[in-house]
Amino acid sequence: MASDVREQAHGSVASQLHSSEEDRAFDMTTSEKVVELLNQAALISTEEKLIVLKQVQELIINKDPSLLDNFLDEIIAFQTDKSIEVRKFVIGFIEEACKRDCELLLRLIANLNMLMRDESVNVVKKAILTLSQLYKVALQWLVRTKSVSDMQEACWDMVTQLKEDVLALLDSDNDGVRTYAIKFTESLIITLSPRTPDSDTPKKQEGDISLDKIPKDHTYIRYDTLCDEGKLALEQLLKFMVHPAISSINLTAALGSLATLARQRPMFMSEVVQAYETLHANLPPTLAKSQVSSVRKNLKLHLVSVLKHPSSVDFQGQISTLLLDLGMSQSEISRCTPATVQPRKRLHHEPYVEGKRTKMVEDDDDKEEPAPVVTPKSSSTAGTQSSIDLTAEFLLPLLNPENVANLVFCFWVLATSATISVLLSPQLGVLIFSQVRVKLLARLVTQFEGGKKNDLLQFILEDMRGRSELAFSLLFHEYNEYLGQQPSGSLDSYEHCLFTLLSGLQEKPEQRDGLFTKLVLEAPVITDSALEVIQRYCEDESRVYLGMSTLKELILKRPSRQYQYLNVLLNLSSHEKEKVRSTALSFIKRMYEKEHLKDCIEKFALTYMQFLVHPNPPSLLFGAGEDTEVAASWTEETVRQCLYLYLSLLPINHCLVHELAAVYTEAIADIKRSVLRVIEQPIRGMGMSSPDLLLLVEYCPKGAETLVTRCLHILTDKVPPSPELVERVRDLYHKRVPDVRFLIPVINGLEKNEVIQALPKLIKLNPIVVKEVFNRLLGTQHSEGSPSMSPLTPGELLIALHNIDSSKCDMKSIIKATNLCFGEKNVYTSEVLAVVMQQLMEQTPLPILLMRTVIQSLTMYPRLAGFVMNILARLIHKQVWKYPKVWEGFVKCCQRTKPQSYNVLLQLPPPQLASVFERCPEMREPLLQHVHAFTPHQVHSIQAHIPASVMAVLEANSRKPEPEPQPELHHPEIIEEREVCCDEAEVATDLFFCFVMYIRV
Amino acid sequence: MSCVSHVSLSLHSKRGFDVRSFGTGTHVKLPGPAPDKPNIYDFKTTYEQMYNDLVRKDKELYTQNGILHMLDRNKRIKTRPERFQSCKEQFDLVITCEERVYDQVLEDLNSREQESLQPVHVINVDIQDNHEEATLGAFLICELCQCIQHTDDMENEMDELLQEFEEKSQRPFLHTVCFY
Questions:
Q1: Residue A850 · residue A871 · CB < 8 Å
Q2: What's the mean pLDDT in A658-668?
Q3: Distances in Å between the alpha carbon of A579 and those of A532, A575, A674, A927, B153?
């Protein structure tokens, strides 16, 4: 039960909106409901807004169309909504509304016109689709109207203009927009050509208007003009199709359009088949292989659909040949070929094709169609209203404070000019609210002197968004004025207008509406001062993106001066503000992908980089215009300025790296250092598999060794070197530049024996470098990342150091190197050291540093004492006294390990024991006592092994004088101090006591 | 977005998209005990019925080859398979996984009467009809859809995107545009 309650509660919450609507629907009129929905729509998210708006659309278009007029403006107001989807909805609404009531075209066509120029291509595309429909609606409406009003004429003018605009979009930069333009063209050709009895007509389009339904004696619509426009459109489409760089999708769309044309307007069969033939023989070279497959598949599909049409009879031969070429079998082709022929129908449209239209008038089939049966509701009532009523009806819903303000302003402007005040007739009131108003006003103002113009400009800037149409009109008229005064005209007035608008916009706080971009892109000419404003936008950190995306559009869409615009952007790539610079770089990188801009960008980058070979930075870098050198010297900052663009292109185009090497070899040391600092990111971005980097390593130019080494370090900093990289470095080292430092970054990619061979050279390098080498070999690098596999184990490395030939390397360096090993206590554990000692001890001859290592190990790990005693005993068997330096160490070791070492000492032959006492006379007495202290049992087991000769040595010296002091005596303390210190400098200056002799080396 | 394919191209790749899955043949075919003995159902059969039928026939086999798992998942998404040709909704993008299916889709779309002129892009990515390839293919298609979804302007960037994918996946894609 509890769950039931909960469910109910939950359910009611979920459907609250819905159910509350339904409840109230009983009491609410549709009108009230619409008001409520519209109120909601203003406050909710885009997704919900769309749902609500669709409900409104359903209510005022389908449920109660009488409300349409009332709420039109509220819906249309969403045309400036931030959301693309909402703006697209408005377009769909315009379409549905106009289909429902053609009269609305008068008002809505201007809105469609505006949306056609939307900044989002998706909105533009939707507007194109809608125009395809509304073009037919408008034409049909006008044809029905016996006496066309001025308003209707203006409306049709705009429809015609829009049609031209969309046809022009066949040249759009945007692939998708072109596709939509193709479909519009197709639809336009169908409308502007006559439907004939052999036309395929889709059921839903049976009521559509076409040329054959247009009376030749209409008062306003001209049959001949439309016929010509239709033919022109077909020509444009055919021309579009043979463009050598047509995209695969545009071609696909056009192929489909042609098939539709052939079926619905068989009179064009010949042109279509010919176009297919041409295309088949000359597929655009720009298509990729799979695109060719896609296009051929489409061609086949469409050819079959054309072939199936009865009117293809005269072209069956050509079509079959094409289909055979496309891989269709003869039997399949036969199956698609219609059996019957209707020659009369073909004759029927020949006259049209050949341009003898007059014949069609005589043709009885083509007599005018009766007037369409549908009569608009409004037109019947319109007759009874006076024109003033009509005007008022039209005006009232449009009035709002903003409009009234505009109106007053316009009147004011007009009234101050006596010459035109005559235009202040009541009819102007209507015009004031149409597109015509804006144009008229703009036209008038361009006649004025400066003061009035400035007033108008200020007026526009007060609400740029609401008055943008006026702004555009004004701008265009200024430009027209200029054109009209050619060849002596001056652009000053136009430039002033554009400059004022753009700079005015810059001072406005909000920029989301994209007016700036729109103004720049639609301005007929970008003057120098306008370009400066654009540059200011780009340099303004809060507007940089807007400024640069506008600049980008200019570069891409205004080819005539694109290099000038590109240059502005390129100059910003070394801007002092980080944000400006990085935004410019990211825009340039995208443009770098465009083939025609690539060279220019690259040249700029290289020119800047090549400044680095000059002894001083050029004044260009300090904002001065001329390329003269000033007496400043290079700084880190100026060096970077020359490299920003280059370095951001480098990861995209690796072969530029060779230019860097060339500049590097010529540059002074300070610049070299700066370069080495800034290349990390780009080089890492290129990666060690980059063929150009590998090439640079292989042919390391003279003078670029440090650059190459730096590259190698960057590449191997976080990842182990690739075999390919190792191979190149090995080649470079062995064949060209035998500098062992090249090997360091790839050291873990080398063979064990290669590393051992290189060790003597490596450990003689700067202590910091040696440390780096050991870090790599011992896997003790600080950086994260996968531990690379060293070719040597830590034990092997330490042993290799002991075995370095002293003729190849000084002992001091070797000792320092072994100290580095001992410094890594985590790596050199007691186990590792025990193995090392064991192996070194077994070698013959004994390594010089053996005892040093034994003592040091013992200091690090006192618990190794037992193990060390064993080692010492074994060394006696190897006659350790024959190796003077090892012997010296041996004695010191015994001295440090007494009393444990007594038993070892007792195993020495007498002369060697005597030698020990010569070195350390103070050892004798304790050792003697040690022997004396043996218990009887011990005497039996051990003393028995002490020969009398040894006892003699032990006792002999008791009468000897005190031995002369030995310098080594002071060293035990130093050992203690040194062993604990790991400081680089101390280690470097310090030497182990038993190898004092080597200090001289 | 829509994805037309054999039913067995599971709904793997469809997370996060507004996706519908269709068959194009006259029947739904599922692998049977041998390549020449598929299980055939008409489009009226629900996934539930197919599931039960296969459990009855050979639970072991159909568990092992993943068919039952797939049907189980499918039945949670919708009741029965749909036939593309019978669907009157409009899509932006149709993806097929076999050239034969691509041809059927094209034929169907071209045979419809044009009305709104709204474009629909059709892309074919050839994927062998086995579970492993289907999974690989599903990831590829998913990635493709994600890339398409992230484009600001699908139609303008589609060409380039597909060529990139072609190169990356080493499969030729077929691509066309039809209109509703």
A1: no
A2: 90
A3: 19, 9, 22, 80, 26
Interchain CB distance below 8 Å, A204 and B113: yes
Overall average pLDDT of the A117-130 stretch: 94
Which structure tokens are listed for A920?
Answer: 């350390």
- Quick check: bond before A899 cis, omega within 30? yes
Task: Residue A723: count other Cβ atoms within 10 Å of its Cβ.
Answer: 10
Residue A904 and residue A869 in contact, taking contact as beta carbons nearer than 8 Å = yes
Residues 6+ apart with CB under 8 A from A598: A592
Partners of A202 on chain B (C-beta within 8 Å) are: 113-115
Q: How far apart are CA A114 and CA A78, in angstroms?
A: 13
| Residues of chain B contacting residue A204, judged by C-beta atoms under 8 Å apart | 113, 115
Cβ of B174 and A252 within 8 Å? no
- Is the model more confident about A943 or about A527? A527
User: Minimal CA–CA distance to A110: which of A127, A126, A96?
Assistant: A127
How far apart are the C-alpha atoms of A248 and B177, rounded to whole Å?
Answer: 10
Choose from A32-36, A85-89, A322-326, A435-439 the range with maximum mean pLDDT.
A85-89
Task: Identify the closest residue of chain B to A120 by CA–CA distance.
Answer: B153
What number is the ipTM of this complex? 0.86
The string of pLDDT tens digits covering residues A714-724 is: 888 888 889 99
Contact A537, A550 (CB under 8 A): yes
Residues belonging to chain A with any Cβ–Cβ distance to chain B shorter than 8 Å: 121-122, 125, 129, 132, 174-177, 179-180, 183-184, 187, 202-205, 247-249, 252-253, 256, 260, 288-291, 293-294, 297-298, 301-302, 305
What DSSP letter does each residue of A139-188 carry, written as one string? HHHHHH-SS--HHHHHHHHHHHHHHHHHHHGGG-S-HHHHHHHHHHHHHH
User: For the segment A186-207, what is each residue's pLDDT rounded down to a tens digit?
Assistant: 999 999 999 999 999 988 888 8
* Higher pLDDT pick, B174 / A423: B174
Q: Determine whether the interchain pair A174/B156 forms a contact, defined as Cβ–Cβ distance below 8 Å.
A: yes
Query: Could you tell me whether strands B39-41 and B28-30 are parallel, antiparallel, or unpaired per DSSP bridges?
Result: antiparallel
**CA separation for the pair A294, A248 (Å, rounded):** 8
A115 to chain B, minimum CA–CA distance in Å?
17
- A298·B176 Cβ contact <8 A: yes
**What's the start-to-end Cα distance of chain A, in Å?**
98
Residue A323: per-residue pLDDT: 92
CA atoms within 13 A on the CB side of A485: 13
A526 close to A554: Cβ distance less than 8 angstroms: yes
Amino acid at A168: A
* Phi and psi torsions of A355, nearest 5°: 85, 5
Q: Return the pLDDT at A357.
A: 38
Scanning every residue of chain A, which has its alpha carbon at the shortest distance from the alpha carbon of B121?
Answer: A249
Tell how far CA B130 is from the center of its chain: 13
Mean pLDDT of B73-78: 84
Which of B103, B119, B174 is facing A293, going by the closest CB pair? B174
Can you tell me which residue has the tokens 């976080």?
A718
What's the rounded Cα separation, in Å, for the pair A935 and A3? 95
Name the most confidently modeled range: A83-97, A553-567, B114-128: A83-97
